[in-house]
Design goal:
Elements: E1 4-8, H1 14-23, E2 28-31, H2 45-54, E3 58-61, H3 69-76, H4 80-91, H5 94-109, E4 112-116, H6 125-137, E5 141-143
Parallel strand pairs: 1-4, 1-5, 2-3, 2-4
Helix pairs in contact: 3-4, 5-6
Amino acid sequence: MPDLLTIGYEGSTIQAVVAALRAAGTALLIDVRALPQSRKPGFSRRQLAATLDEAGILYVHLQPLGTPKPGRDAVRAGHPEVMERIYRAHIAGDAPQAALSQARAMAGERRACLLCFEHDPAHCHRRLVAEMIAAETGQRIVHLVPSDR
């Protein structure tokens, strides 16, 4: 079973993120943002998917695994514990559970990396998603750090 990777792009360039993904042998990037847009160049869904395609990395966006707006607001306000409570309630829903099952299956087939914004996985729901997947699969979780961080 391949390791399950995660990465946050806060403070990084698209080049550094792709380099970290390639260095780790990533075959699939699973975007777990609720809104796959970014003010940071290269991280909006279409641009990101095209850049990853050029690097030989598959891209999939699983919107139901994103954090609801109140959870995103809580992290921005410096309250990741509030985000975690909100996210745990959200992930219990039918659509998030179906997306989690899909992510689990894909991560078992190829070396996958969960992408979100926050640099620190302790402040990001991608850590929670990774832990939920690993609890079922036994995969080791590796949090990647781009070289420009």
